[in-house]
Amino acid sequence: MEPEAVAMISIATLATAMGTAITTVNIFNHLSHWNAPKHQQIIVQMLVLVIVWSLFSFFVVIRPGMQPITMVAMDTYEAYIVLLFTKLITVYLVRSPP
């Protein structure tokens, strides 16, 4: 294997591991301090984006031939995140009655 390929795979592995670890801690913190369920449920669903995208990007670095498949999945997930973001804004803006 060429040194450039090894370097790319090493950087991708490190970035994927760091992103997944930091996001997992953030998700765990949201779940342990569950005080606004409507908001936090959407936020946790959105945080999973980091893990999903980092894994897809990692697979593309390892196997570049998988890019068309992963791009479709990433675009679909991105549309889902836009939907969640719109839902989160709606939850923040709509006031519940006292």
Structure description:
The protein is mainly α. 85% of the residues lie in helices and 0% in strands. Helix 1 (3-32) runs antiparallel to helix 2 (37-62). It is elongated and about 65 Å long.
Indicate the structural class.
mainly alpha
Number of strands: 0
How are helices and strands ordered from N to C? HHH
Helix content: over 70%
Quick structural gist:
By secondary structure, the protein is an all-alpha fold. The protein is 85% helix and 0% strand.
Please name the defining characteristics of this protein.
98 residues; single chain
Fold blueprint:
Blueprint (H helix, E strand, L loop, with lengths): L2 H30 L4 H26 L4 H27 L5
